[in-house]
Amino acid sequence: MQLHDTLKRMANPLYPVNSLEGRLLFAVPKKGRLNSATLNLLEGADIQFRRENRLDIALVKNLPIALIFLPAADIPTFVGEGQVDLGITGYDQVQEHDAGVRSVMKKRRFSGEITPEEESARSAITGCDTVMELGFGACRLQVQVPEKGTYQSPKDLIGKTIGTSFVHLTEKYFANLEIEAGSQGGLEGKIQTKIIELSGSVEAACALGVADGIVDLVESGETMKAAGLKAIDTVVDSSAILIKSRSPRNTELVELIASRIRGVIAAQRYVLCQYNIQRSALASATKIAPGKRAPTITTLDEEGWVAVSIMVEKKKIAPVMDELTKVGATDILVLAIANTRTD
Ligand SMILES: Nc1ncnc2c1ncn2[C@@H]1O[C@H](COP(=O)(O)OP(=O)(O)OP(=O)(O)O)[C@@H](O)[C@H]1O
Ligand SMILES: O=P(O)(O)OC[C@H]1O[C@H](OP(=O)(O)OP(=O)(O)O)[C@H](O)[C@@H]1O
């Protein structure tokens, strides 16, 4: 059943379900690490909405879109099944969802419930496509063990107990490890390593004797350090991504949103740098900072001088200004870009 129909059946009269008709459904993280950066991105893309208290659906005022607020972990399911057209979540969550779907299909094939052909046909229609990386929410899903313990390499954990919120990726990781080590048993892909599902505070599992190792997200590394753990391998490198279903309701609108978001990301990543320089030094200056496509050069009302305008990556602007000064650039101005539409 389509999400539109399901929502219509819900009794709560506050749900703006009747107005969902004809709208593109866009899932965004309702809380957690990706929530605030996602809301900033929507604001930058001029996607205007007002979310009523405790409602997980908000109609966009200026575009035929409805925002659906969901846990980041559930967004790949809704988009992958085509119930929702677009979504923002972590790449780790998409990988976890895909690994889960593949594992269920594999089990159904081994039990004779579906044929290999049905398995690949279903895999082709479900799942989501990545539209773009969004430049926030960077983290790594890592295998962690007690710093002072005896486990040094991931292979030492074969047959042991692992705590994680990412059970499917962890199962796949240890299944591959066991195959590599020649110790995996059974055609059904049963693994010797025991995976325990935990929904939060995974880092506490080793100290409490629940697990020998964990597979959990790391950003700064502070949480793992405080818990006396060290990383011995990375399962997935992740950051926030925009995903779309394989059959979105309105591809033009998907393109419009993608293009707006691309513009916001470019605006966040670049600054506009303007300076004056003598024409004779222009070649050296543009070599230092050639701009995104090419510099915009304007003749100044002073013999032999030009004004140059270029986009520069924010993180490189300080050394670029140092170098430009060395070759004779003056009156250097750096301006924030509010928004942009660029390739
Ligand atoms: N420490 C982190 N640094 C950066 N990104 C992270 C971090 N932890 C998680 N993420 C990213 O955010 C996504 C959502 O994780 P988060 O723990 O915020 O979800 P949640 O379960 O919805 O929220 P909560 O933990 O508050 O219940 C993760 O899948 C990952 O992509
Ligand atoms: O490397 P760090 O910067 O310290 O971040 C890593 C921590 O962040 C995440 O947990 P979160 O704080 O979202 O809470 P949770 O344990 O309830 O999932 C993750 O599960 C780690 O515990």
TrEMBL record:
Subcellular location: Cytoplasm
SUPFAM superfamilies, per the entry: GlnB-like, Periplasmic binding protein-like II
Record-listed E.C. numbers: 2.4.2.17
Boundaries of every Histidine biosynthesis HisG C-terminal domain copy: 267-339
GO BP term (any one): L-histidine biosynthetic process
Main location: cytoplasm
Keywords (A to Z) from UniProt: Amino-acid biosynthesis, ATP-binding, Cytoplasm, Glycosyltransferase, Histidine biosynthesis, Nucleotide-binding, Transferase
Gene3D superfamilies hit by this protein: 3.30.70.120, Periplasmic binding protein-like II
Pathway(s): Amino-acid biosynthesis; L-histidine biosynthesis; L-histidine from 5-phospho-alpha-D-ribose 1-diphosphate: step 1/9
GO cellular component, one term: cytoplasm
GO molecular function, a single term: magnesium ion binding
Reaction it catalyzes: 1-(5-phospho-beta-D-ribosyl)-ATP + diphosphate = 5-phospho-alpha-D-ribose 1-diphosphate + ATP
Pfam families in the record: HisG, HisG_C
UniProt keyword annotation of Amino-acid biosynthesis present: yes
Domain ATP phosphoribosyltransferase catalytic as annotated: residue spans: 72-263
PROSITE patterns to which the protein is assigned, alphabetical: ATP_P_PHORIBOSYLTR
Taxonomic superkingdom: Eukaryota
Family: Belongs to the ATP phosphoribosyltransferase family.
Protein name stated in the entry: ATP phosphoribosyltransferase
